[in-house]
Amino acid sequence: MLNGLWLSFFVVAAVAGLSRWLLADDPAVFAAMVESLFAMAKLSVEVMVLLFGTLTLWLGLLRIAEKAGLVDALARLLGPLFARLMPEVPRGHPALGLITMNFAANGLGLDNAATPIGLKAMRALQELNPSSTTASNAQILFLVLNASSLTLLPVTIFMYRAQQGAPDPTLVFLPILLATSASSLVGLFSVAIMQRLRIWDPVVLAYMVPGALLLGGFMALLAGMSATALAGLSSLLGNLTLFGVIVAFLVIGALRKVQVYEQFIEGAKEGFDVAKSLLPYLVAMLCAIGVLRASGALEFMLDGIRWLVAWGGWDTRFVDALPTAMVKPFSGSAARAMLIETMQTQGVDSFPALAAATIQGSTETTFYVLAVYFGAVGIQRARHAVGCALLAEFAGVVAAISVCYWFFG
Q1: Which keywords has UniProt assigned to this entry (predicted)?
Q2: Distances (CA, A) of 280 to 11, 137, 277, 289, 362
Q3: Distance of alpha carbon 393 from alpha carbon 148, whole angstroms
Q4: Rg, Å, the chain Cα set
Q5: What digits encode the pLDDT tens for the residues 40-64?
Q6: For the segment 150-191, what is each residue's pLDDT rounded down to a tens digit?
Q7: C-alpha separations of 349 from 46, 47, 121, 165, 333 in Å
Q8: In 10 A of CB 396, how many CB atoms?
């Protein structure tokens, strides 16, 4: 899948370049494409340096949280909910702890770190699966919730914005929180309908109703605020939450007699190992997208969409954020590259860049997750997993664009 996607970027760029040379008499297009290759290779290394630090920091902190018992406590807290949503998984089964850790990593925006934990969780669920080739209900729910990408603290998005020079990297905190909530709820309800889960069970409602009321009340509070005030509040809450989580992990770890420094170093080593494997993918995708942009093919496609949107009488500013949305179901590295490229060409705090960052933080790589998670355990029949995951992804994109118009006008 990724092989065809990556190759298509170069093939389309080559066709577009030849068209500009032969039809528009623009031979300089090839010089621009070659220059873009080297520029994007350099940018990949610059992004990678900061990504090393981000993953190392947060996996170190996540190790402290794990040793302090916070992950186990969260698993016990969610145990009654999982018992209703995944009735075939016995209470206390190792899969529940791994699922919790996976959700914690996703919640912190550490999608690269969440993948190895998620694979362990999928293998644990496969041990309970009576079929070796057909996905179980629990596996489908786990995959769809991963694809809906519930991100409470998108630190990697903050990192990309900081690397591109954003004066306030956390500006998109609240938009991502609202958009990811929408995608996760759609994903959960779509699976519940397909699997006939008892979503109206008193225990499930006890978890969901307070959260829904809190989110609804919060949105009602935000409704009366101006765009400037919304942006300011998003910045304040983003920075406050980010630092608050760090302090909470350290303080609780120290109170539980955890050797916080030693455990941080152990987790940080894992983060370093995860980060160093990402550079080849980042170079590959950024260079392919850079060539696509330099050839004029990407702009030609966006101009067509922009014309259709304008013909319908709608605002066209979100169109430049659509490349991130269109490739996100297939490849996280391609979407990441599209986001960085949008920030570079449009400006890090432009509306398209803010919308692309919100889309990146509130959706997941549906087909990639499907291939990796199910492929790791030999699942061939996904049943309703793809439809539910894509519905959640679509809801996340629509919510992200809508929320950005609300916050950034």
Answers
A1: Membrane, Transmembrane, Transmembrane helix
A2: 20, 35, 7, 14, 25
A3: 6
A4: 22
A5: 888 777 777 766 777 778 778 878 8
A6: 777 777 788 788 878 888 887 888 888 888 888 888 888 888
A7: 19, 18, 38, 9, 21
A8: 31
